[in-house]
Amino acid sequence: MKPLLETIDFPAQLRQLDRKQLPQLADELREFLIHSVSQTGGHLSSNLGVVELTIALHYVFNTPDDRLVWDVGHQTYPHKILTGRREAMSGLRKEGGIAGFPRRAESEYDAFGAGHSSTSISAALGMAVAALQAGSDRRAVAIIGDGAMTAGMAFEALNNAGAMDANLLVILNDNDMSISPNVGALNNYLARLLSGKLYDRMRRGTEKVLGVAPHILELAKRAEEHVKGMVTPSTLFEEFGFNYIGPIDGHDLDALVATLSNIRKLKGPQFLHVVTQKGYGFKPAEDNPGKFHGVGKFDPANGKAITSGGKKTYTQVFGEWLVDMATKDKRLVGITPAMCDGSGLNAFQEQFPDRYFDVGIAEQHALTFAAGLACDGSKPVVAIYSTFLQRAYDQLIHDIALQNLPVLLAIDRAGLVGADGPTHAGSFDISYLRCIPNMVVMCPSDENECRQMLYTGFMLDMPSAVRYPRGCGSGVTIEKTMQALPLGKGEIRRKGKKVAILAFGSMLQPALAAAEKLDATVANMRFVKPLDNALVYELAASHDLIVTVEENAVMGGAGAAVMEALQAVGSAVKTLVLGLPDEFIEHGTPEKMLAACGLDAAGIASAIEKTLTE
């Protein structure tokens, strides 16, 4: 007999099923998901936790006309499978394949692109208001996790939405039991009751009748809050102007379908609290949801990773340096906006729990919190991805740089990031950091240089940043001793003729390889700011062509800094600036992505040869 999942290509077919068939579909979908991700890698725990919720949403709502807006996007694989992309899952996050996050250009069912956290409520509210203005009964639903609810943007949107009459449903996917453990048959029953039309009419009718007697109305509201508060944490969200419903079991399809069916008939802002379990239905992921949040290929029979071993990653180098530095200096505190695992802070957290601060998905707060610590004698190190640092740009300028505070930014995932694609690429940090006064910006060319630069930045009495790529470096020996590098000084790594390649960070190795073919000089520039102007001028005076290479946007990047330096002294030397083009680079393997941008050894050599013949 044909599996039920294979009969579902689009939600319209799903809505033809009998409700009794939905649990079977959930089992098949979960099994397909485990086997699919085991072959491609990707996000697993979060997706396993929303299988039933995804089925219920597409079963109740008329998608794609009704809009589903998924926050972050880590949990959209079941959604993709049910919306015409089941066969395409074999190419997930691969070159030419589907993305690991929602993308409007990929499917009409992806109402809003995601990748960064806490945007869903704002976007869904915009869609709900657009429907209201168009006189449409179209519904907008935001699905947001409890982690994403830690961001200020989510509460800004809730505050705005509660004052409107738009038909917005916010679903809180509480998968860490962080708000309430009250889940079970009684709560599921009460959720259905509180989402029903009878209760809604009674509540609205009472407000109209008692509105002429404000004191009695206030008494009635307090009584309602008391009754609901005995079993639900409703007060906070109802203060925002939402009708709170829940919590309900996010793996109980009967409760989900019944509750969502009732809510779809209600007007105004609604808030549904759903409790799910990360990794649900796959024991290895249930036991260790953090490990299975983002995974490579693994054996679906036991969850064991399929790895080839290898060198230390830059993230591991940072994590080891942080522990070593914290041992030497009690002023050091480590800060992360909810990226402990990804940023390599696990060992630091275990050894220095009183100096470790996970502030949640709140990048803006992370930087100003660090600024406050720095004001009173602490030495904060903020571990943050390049793509997420963008979200705290004002705080970096206004709260840290303007006050010249000694905060060290350990910027992970600088440059292209492979399978995660443009939402997570660190393509812009050199450009947006180098224009800020008081900043020191460093780009390590290997793992040992990364360790020494982290020490260099930490020892400075001013803001500094070390940007390093995802994955491994060249595998050099990492010195345990730490020594500050001369501020703003590069080094010659190869002497050649006619052409001088000024390499920044990760581009040193392909630059050296290209230089072997061309007999070119190669400088490891190390610092973007302050730039080693003396070295730039020396190379410009002794070579016919100056080439800059960086894994950052060409516009406003390190190459632009070199051009500005040359212009300042009226140099007429011929120049070539190589870096990431003015476009968003699609996901794929890092090697192929860099080659497509002309940033591998062959691409660098080819671009130089072409310039020399012009």
Q: What does this entry look like structurally?
A:
The protein has 614 residues and is of the alpha/beta class. Helix content is 41%, strand content 15%. It has 26 helices and 19 strands. The chain has a seven-stranded mixed β-sheet with strand order 9-8-10-11-13-12-17, sandwiched between helices. A five-stranded parallel β-sheet has the order 2-3-4-6-5, with helices on both faces. Strand 18, helix 24 (558-568) and strand 19 form a beta-alpha-beta unit. Helix 8 (185-194) packs parallel to helix 12. It is globular.
**What best-fitting shape do the alpha-carbon axes yield?**
globular
Secondary-structure class: alpha/beta
Mean pLDDT score, rounded? 90
**What is the radius of gyration computed over CA atoms, rounded to a whole number of angstroms?**
27 Å
Secondary-structure blueprint:
Layout: H1 11-14, H2 22-40, E1 42-43, H3 45-48, H4 51-60, E2 67-70, H5 77-85, H6 120-133, E3 140-145, H7 152-161, E4 168-174, H8 185-194, H9 197-210, H10 214-229, H11 235-239, E5 243-249, H12 253-264, E6 270-275, H13 283-287, E7 294-295, H14 314-328, E8 332-336, H15 340-343, H16 346-351, E9 356-358, H17 363-375, E10 379-385, H18 386-389, H19 393-401, E11 408-412, H20 429-434, E12 440-442, H21 447-459, E13 464-467, E14 491-494, E15 499-503, H22 508-518, E16 521-524, E17 527-529, H23 533-542, E18 545-553, H24 558-568, E19 574-580, H25 590-596, H26 601-613
Helix pairs in contact: 2-4, 4-12, 6-7, 8-12, 14-21, 17-19, 22-26
